[in-house]
Amino acid sequence: MFCKKLLVGGVIFTLSACGGSSSDPVNIIEPVASMPNLNEMSVPLGSLAQQNGIEFERHLKNGVYLRNQNSFKINFSDSPESSSTNVGANFSTTINQEQGVDEGDRIKYDGEYLFIASQEPYVGLLEGDVSENNEHTVVRILRRTHDGAISEVNKLVVNEEATHINSLYLNNDVLAVLSDIYQYNIAASSFLGGFFPQEQNFNLTLMSVINPQVPNETASFTIDGSIIDSRRVGDVLYVVSSFSAKIGDLVYGDTDEEQLDNYNSILETDINDLLPRYTDGDGVEHNLVNAESCYIPEQATEFDGFDGIVTLTAIDLKSPGKLQSVCVNAQVQGLYASPSSVYLYGTEFQYQDNTTVETSVIHKFSFQGQSINYQASGNLDGRFNWGLSNLRFSEQGEYLRVVTTTGDRISGYQHRLNVLTQEANTLSVISQLPNDINPKLIGKQSDDGNVYEDIKSVRFYLDQAYVVTFLNTDPLYVIDLKDNLHPKISGELEIPGYSAYLHPISDDLLLGIGQSVDPTRIPNNISEDGTSTGVDEDDSPVIEGAKVSLFDISDKSNPKEIHSIIYGQSYTPVEYDYHALTALTMNNGNMRFSIPIERWLTETVVDENQQKYDVWRAENNLALFEVTGTTKEASLIDKGSITAEFPDDTQSNFISGWDDRAIFHDDDVYYIHGSNVWQSSWNLLDVVTGPL
Hints:
The chain has 692 residues and is mainly beta. It has three helices and 42 strands.
């Protein structure tokens, strides 16, 4: 059942879910004599509220009806920071946004055993299986010996129904595997809500890996819905997932009578049939949430509705028992998590007078162990964009710092840094940049007064924020947040290209990873000084290749680029997924790091009939670097690379570098491409063993 505590004196509700079951009491809403005039669904703005089961049920069922009619489209977008270099340890771990908040990835390493999520041929993995053409999701387990040699000790099919392993977590002797069971076509389902797919499940399996060579399954939960994201704090894993309620036998209502029949059929449906469920390892089915543990928009009326449910579920990895979940009956795009809070966010797009109005909402939940409590919500003008949007957020003490964007390349952008604090159940904006005292815009101002540079990356570190905007050059802005009530731009640097990901090394050094741009090949709409001379949507700068830059930020008013390295006609997955970056700070203070590099080559081949044709093939490398020290006197050194070479070159043609990873352990380097591993030494990179 649902447990709640009401705090008096105007303080917000403190709520937590105790889990539900299919035998919980059901709320029945009586059929209606005439069809109500329901409002279209949208991203609700403002605070959430736990009302009562009837109000939640009506809101959900209204949404199920609206979705079935399909007469609209959903408008839906997409503390000090941790440098995550594992300082003082002798092996690398997953790059995370926040210190103390672990993020899932396709590999995990504990200093001896390496776990790799991969897609491999199904044949032979299960005893008695005779399939030859199917693939299955597996976890490879490899062991490193003291001399650096690595070999496979086991290969697990964790869940036979899984189509893709979403992420791995390793917590002491527990391996947590999150797997998608049904992959849906995003394009085909976008008109159904995109992030709320129907008929999808995911699985969480916990494995005891005290002896990884003989792992033991300790718990398994198959859960309705789709994973949005997840985080681990201490022994507790938090999973945010989405679910779309539906009734399978409804058809489109063409007449008033058919529409009323559909609506009444939905009203008469048992609410438990519209809620996500989970099945435990014993095959027992439970409701993931119940009607009393779900939040709806505080301002929702009886004519509003939404069929999507977002659940925030807590699982104790040491003592997995009943899942603890709360539910939000509203749209959510993603999450940002600090060690004590999780923020769910989404953006509403409305079209007014040929203008797009963008408003975003943020919902704050606090957590301690498996207890999840709703705190507050807030609205902001603008959006968070899509790629790595969580990096636009940072919690420091009582403040939440967030970067938003409005506008587009045609009319110009407006970028803002917002500082919010919680007041009762509202996240209130207490300061913004630009402002009257510090009016300088984020992004270079063009001759017509507009900013045509979009934001490519944001990173918060201690009491600074670093923002990169880009049109043809890369302005790196340093924003001073020592006084959160009065943020200001303290310095900026302009260089060709842009950084898509920023990685703080120290208070003096910042690493930038992105793309280089040829400054001599300027689009028609860009003047020689980099400002716009009239916008042409088809004009774009000429991208040269992946770029790594080391910045001196010791003087916040005058950031400098110490050195940069460019890999022509290539890209690195780090631009889109910072887990692809590997970094390790050595005992001497130097930081070693690596990034995967992928580029496509063409070769002219002559067949037996003397016909010439071009063959495309990928070239995948792991580029390795060293930063000598943590002060402005540091250097960026290109150490070389490891190439993923197969005995038969054709094997590599269809393996993308998107999910490439690496592990450092002392001087040993392990490059993971696909499900294969190549091994080398930091000081002898021309000697490579693999694929393993």
